[in-house]
Write a structure and sequence with these properties.
The chain has helices at about 1-15, 45-60, 100-115, 120-125, 140-145, 150-160, 220-235, 290-305, 325-330, 355-375; strands spanning about 65-70, 75-85, 90-95, 130-135, 170, 175, 180, 185, 240-245, 250-255, 260-265, 315, 335-345, 390. By secondary structure, the protein is α/β, with parallel strands linked by helices. It has one domain: 3-Layer(aba) Sandwich (Aminopeptidase), CATH 3.40.630.10. The strands form four sheets. It has an eight-stranded mixed beta sheet with strand order 1-2-4-3-9-13-11-12, sandwiched between helices. The longest helix is centred in the C-terminal third of the chain and has 21 residues, at about 355-375. Belongs to the peptidase M14 family. It comes from Paludifilum halophilum. This is Peptidase M14.
Length: about 400
């Protein structure tokens, strides 16, 4: 594991390569023809998503409530949908990176089901309060790129104490994933979170690094932080947080030649219970065992789908420490956490995979929600998590 971590660290330093939810570059298999650009018209645009959410709300006869959670840097409303009245609170976000839209489609389908008349949906609504943010970075989604649409000068306008400070390390100004950020810079919002939910930016914390917390300088991260805090205030805690992503298209299930359909993970930060941890204050809240149970619930649901590709599920690399991600920050605040990483991004996956991947995400989410609603998740042996094959990269 140490050798793997060292190798990945060298790659990051030398080439800027990292798994896609945490990376600057999508992974491409050398010498292999691209699977074809995925037409973004095949996925919901911002305007289409808004119409779809309103339709879901109307058809649910009041069971699904859609409202504004916040506003993006370019003034687009970031929508949240709430369904259910149960004591178990689940927060799910998608498209923190604008070019990763599969989870958004799956999440809308989950909302359609939970807003329906079936007895199963009713039972789940009685046990769970689900809050979904299907497109948390709409500016990036509209430009089909990873980073949001925001300049460092705009950050300084919001936080004058940062005048003269070197920009954050996750500020994009060059070419990334085929997009030129030089004229319209932006931030990787998935590095702008901090386990201190009341943190305000301090000059001495910049430019920072991937192994350090973020700063809540982007309105998109502030919106999710505020949503998370409001749920904690209302319900006492957020039991589960799930974040939906994409990764590179040519990773393999450990020890096989099978291409990964979807990677899962419940580990994003080093254990705060370690003697040398700088996050000891969060040790009592951190619940890695529950995160492992949630991931196993998703894995088991996908394995029950039968033949490949739904069996091609793996664990995301486990030797990471990323407190600046939403998953890392919320895990330290006591939420059970799950990362979904489906295969490919809009630059590198073919249209034919769309339905397959949406179904995989939906199936995994249903496995988690059903097990939380019934309580079965608490009976899962957390050690089963360790038997999920790790991704070969």
């Amino acid at each position: 594991m140490k050798k793997t971590a060292l190798l990945l660290a060298c790659l990051v330093f030398s080439f800027g390569v990292w798994p896609a939810a945490f990376a600057d570059q999508p992974q491409t298999k050398p010498g292999t023809p691209d699977e074809g650009h995925l037409s973004t018209s095949g996925f919901l645009s911002y305007e289409q998503l808004v119409k779809k959410l309103r339709q879901v709300e109307k058809n649910s006869q009041g069971r699904v409530e859609v409202e504004a959670a916040g506003t993006s840097n370019r003034g687009r409303t970031i929508h949240r949908a709430t369904v259910g009245s149960g004591d178990k609170v689940v927060l799910i976000t998608s498209q923190i990176h604008g070019n990763e839209p599969t989870g958004t489609e799956a999440l809308v389908r989950i909302l359609q089901f939970l807003g329906g008349d079936s007895r199963k949906a009713q039972k789940m609504r009685d046990e769970i309060t689900l809050v979904a943010v299907p497109q948390m970075n709409p500016d990036a989604a509209e430009r089909n790129r990873r980073g949001n649409d925001m300049t460092w000068d705009e950050v300084v306008q919001d936080f004058p104490n940062l005048t003269g400070v070197k920009p954050a390390w996750n500020y994009y100004t060059g070419t990334l994933q085929g997009h030129d950020y030089s004229k319209r810079p932006g931030f990787d919002v998935n590095r702008d979170f901090n386990p201190d939910l009341n943190y305000t930016p301090r000059p001495e914390d910049f430019p920072g690094s991937s192994s350090e917390p973020g700063w809540y300088v982007t309105p998109e991260s502030q919106t999710i932080r505020d949503t998370y805090q409001s749920l904690k205030q209302q319900h006492g805690k957020v039991d589960v947080y799930i974040d939906l992503h994409h990764q590179g298209p040519y990773y393999h299930v450990g020890g096989t030649d099978d291409l990964v359909t979807l990677s899962l993970s419940g580990k994003f930060v080093a254990d705060p219970n370690r003697p040398e941890s700088e996050y000891k204050e969060y040790a009592d809240e951190y619940n890695y065992e529950f995160s492992r149970q949630l991931n196993v619930a998703a894995y088991q649901a996908l394995q029950q789908m039968g033949n490949s590709p739904f069996k091609n599920i793996s664990l995301y690399p486990q030797d990471i420490d990323l407190p600046g991600t939403a998953l890392g920050s919320f895990a330290l605040n006591g939420s059970g956490t799950v990362l979904f990483e489906v295969r490919g991004q809009t630059q590198s996956m073919g249209q034919k995979m769309r339905g397959q991947l949406v179904k995989a995400v939906k199936t995994g989410l249903e496995g988690i929600l059903d097990s939380v609603a019934t309580g079965d998740v608490y009976e899962i042996d957390p050690e089963e998590y360790e038997h999920i094959p790790e991704t070969d990269r």
